[in-house]
Amino acid sequence: MRRFLPDTFTLMLVTTVIIASFLPAKGAFATYFGYATDCAIALLFFLHGARLSRDVVIAGILHWRLHLTILAVTYAIFPLLGLGAGFIPSTILKPELYVGLLYLCVLPSTVQSSIAFTSIAGGNVPAAICSASASNLFGMFLTPLLVGLLMTTSGTSGFSLDALETILLQLLAPFILGQLLEPWIGGWVRARKKLLMPVDRGSILMVVYLAFSESVNEGLWHTFSITDIGVVIVMDALLLALVLCITMFGSRLLGFNKEDEITITFCGSKKSLASGVPMAGAIFAGQSIGAIVLPLMLFHQIQLMTCAVLAQKYAAKRAARQAAAVTAAA
Length: 330
Description:
The protein has about 325 residues and is an all-alpha fold. The chain has one domain: Na+/H+ antiporter like fold, CATH 1.20.1530. It has 14 helices and no strands. Helix 4 packs across helix 12. Keywords: Membrane, Transmembrane, Transmembrane helix. It comes from Rhizobium straminoryzae. InterPro entries: Na+/solute_symporter_sf, Put_Na-Bile_cotransptr. One of its GO terms (cellular component) is plasma membrane. This is Bile acid:sodium symporter.
């Protein structure tokens, strides 16, 4: 049953939302907290750049067919499914929440959980490392471009030049600096994951608190009901189920082996909370982003619970095949 319980970080996210609901940031405190949040996000992407080993990228490029498949799912199939959700009547799925769902669909894959689940299930871990890292790197360009294209097409506010400037200065520049310094500090950063984890999680919690504070001040919880939240949970679950089926059975139709199928399934079905929340603050600057990141926060927990069970099933089947092979050899 522990696999179905929320992880510690999810509980921290829920706690942050509750605090923001009752004690939202206002006035000068909100202004200075926003400056601190910007600095924390810049540090987060600097560490992302420093962690990404160039050797891993070079080694993974050789498996280009697998990487193209994962990128196609992340930046083509997911957005198409998001556009399909636009046919749901606004009386069922509120327009503000649909924007959040569509934004979720154009985000890059996760890094840590994609690699972890691939490893547990017995998949191609080096390819997972490369694909997940490449997804986040390309996401800095593709996510804002897709936001501008899809959300303008769907009649909602699109991407602006101010948002592009924010992404370049606050997200991409620190990432590039981290990559430039990777030969000297990369090993040190990768060896201290637990020590630097507060930067990862703390920066996301700061963005979530600031986002929901602004939304609460504008009447977020007076706008959406429990039914609205339930609709988002159902939509997130259906979206994940569809993509899992597409990646799992599609990889078999394309002739990938079992290890690559596992990698495609776990890397192609994830969406990154760590990248999505900071990018939302840059892309939707000046807007109420609490409703925009809400579908992503819910999807985050659903994907963790579902993929934890799926990884264990893959691992059990792999162990059974190995035991059968040993028995046959004997």
